[in-house]
Amino acid sequence: MTRFTRWAALAAAAALLTAGCTGGGSPDDDSADDGRNGTALDWGRCKASGDEPAPGGNWQCATLPVPLDWAKPDGPTIGLALIRAKATGDDRLGSLLFNFGGPGGSGVSMMPSYAPAVSALHERYDLVSWDPRGVAASEGVRCRDDEDIQAAESTVDGTPDTPAEEKAYLRDAADFGKGCQESAGDLMAHVSTTDTARDMDRIRQVLGDDRLNYFGISYGTELGGVYAHLFPEKVGRLTLDAVVDPTADTVGHAKNQTRGFQTALDNYLKSTGRDPEQGSREIAELLDRIDAEPLPTASSGRELTQSLALTGIVLPLYSKDGWPALTSALDAAQDGDGTELLALADGYNERDASGRYGTTTHSQRVISCLDDKQRPTVEETKQLLPKFEEISPVFGAFLGWDTAGWCHEWPVPGRFDTPEVSAPGAPPILVVGNTGDPATPYEGARKMADELGEGVGVVLTWKGEGHGAYGSGSDCVDSTVNAYLLDGTVPKDGKVCS
To answer: Of the listed 346, 467, 472, 478, which one is catalytic?
Structure first.
């Protein structure tokens, strides 16, 4: 991903439960049939992580050593945490590797919760995922402690209106980067999407698969495209769902997201019988009032700031299932109570009842700021703001300012303007786009297919709502994807599921 602003961090896994795993010996160790290039995986029972119990059933975990720097394959190594569950049927096809997006999402935590949604695939594939480098159990980066995170949420204005607010906003951004550098050390310069794509090929090798079968969601689609570019001859059956536009730079992605979330908000407002333009204007006015005077909440000592309110609005737009919660939270906020919007924001920010925060956004920022070469200045951002606000009166200012603040004074330079995903010679790759996707707007699917190359990118369109298409209620989408992954049946480019 990786020109993503912070709101893309949830990818397709916004509501998934977490369960942690680490490698380790156990009576169920199973490593004899795995291993190439001299590396065998020591699969063992998954262990509990934090307050989350270990996943039961047939889940196994392992740690895979990979080079810290792929340019120095014999140099220092880091450990990647992996999880798998073997195919449930007899007619096994191999492994199916999942990445759930972010960047920064933990595949080790998400895979067991996502497995019921892919039960048809599980019959013939071992389900496999991992924590990419810099994420969670794979040398996970933590840039700031819980107290400092909460302090920033309550004091830093994401849409600064005065010189003092602007100074505080930029200082906070620079301090966050310094904290990441202190946490990551040498790893800070080796967590790019290209590094992780090379890790994926090592995972393929140790799993014993001649070709990579892969399911990438949100940022995982960019990762899949980069893998296909680097290893076209190793591409098996790749599905890319909720597709990132690989032709967009930092500002382009921010504009795409602004359009995407505004479209989702418009569709939500229409579902309530309201005029989208009038409804958006009322929400923007509410946010202006909260900016001037944060709302009280039932959470002891915490108020709902404008930035938290925006995040609370964003979360339920990821799925139509969240729309009723958004209605209730907005009604309460209009009545002066910010409790429900704060709870939604906490869900997005991975804050639990005891005040502990997850680190997905930390890893996301470290990865995306290494990937992204473009660093808009404050002056450039201010010139862009009117266009952002024209696209969306609700989300425009926040996403516009984020282009300047996200990687402000970052300790390491960015590598790319846009990712290279061309994959001449690769077999057909299924690219799935959803016309109502807020975080990765539909246009990215066609652009990804075009960049992959003629005869490689095959587009499947779903006229639906929410982030991602597979498993979202369309039998047409699910059966088409299953036929591709299970039988190798490639649909006609441009097929539409309505």
So the answer is: 467
- In the residue annotation, 372 being an active-site residue is answered as no
Catalytic residue among 266, 402, 437, 478: 437
> 3-class DSSP state for residue 457?
strand
Say which DSSP state 412 is in: S
Is 218 catalytic? The answer is yes
Residue 443, classed as helix, strand or coil, is helix
Q: What percent of the chain has pLDDT over 90?
A: 90
Asked if 137 and 131 touch (Cβ cutoff 8 Å), the reply is yes
Buried-exposed string 216-250: b where 16+ CB fall within 10 A, e elsewhere: bbbbbbbbbbbbbbbbbebbbbbbbbbbbbbbbbb
Segment 460-464 shows an average pLDDT of: 97
- Distance (Å, whole) CA 218 – CA 99: 9
In the set 138, 218, 319, 368, the catalytic residue is 218
**Token output for 84:** 């798998």
Look at residue 26 and tell me whether its pLDDT is greater than 80.
Answer: no
pTM summary value: 0.94
> For residue 1, which of 469, 350, 366 has the smallest C-alpha distance?
366
Q: How many Å apart are CA 1 and CA 363, to the nearest integer?
A: 12
Residue 135 pairs in a beta bridge with 138
Q: Is the pLDDT of residue 484 over 80?
A: yes
In angstroms, the CA 19 to CA 490 distance is 34
Tokens of 185: 């050390």
Does residue 491 have a cis bond before it (omega within 30 degrees)?
Answer: no
Where do runs of H (alpha helix) occur along 85-134?
107-114, 119-122
Reference 184, options 118, 251, 133, 248; nearest CA is 133
Q: Which residues pair with 458 in a beta bridge?
A: 430
Give dist(CA 312, CA 309) in Å, integer. 5
DSSP 144: S
Q: What is the predicted pLDDT for the residue at 20? A: 35
- Residue pair 220/101 in contact (Cβ under 8 Å)? The answer is yes
Cβ contacts of residue 8 below 8 Å, gap of 6+?
A: 1, 101, 102, 218, 219, 257, 364, 439, 440
Helix (H) or strand (E) holding 175: helix 163-184
Q: Tell me the per-residue pLDDT of 187-242, one tens digit each, with 9 for 90 and over.
A: 999 999 999 999 999 999 999 999 999 999 999 999 999 999 999 999 999 999 99
CA proximity to 129, closest of 150, 147, 149, 106: 106
d(C-alpha 38, C-alpha 334), whole Å: 62
Residues in the chain: 498
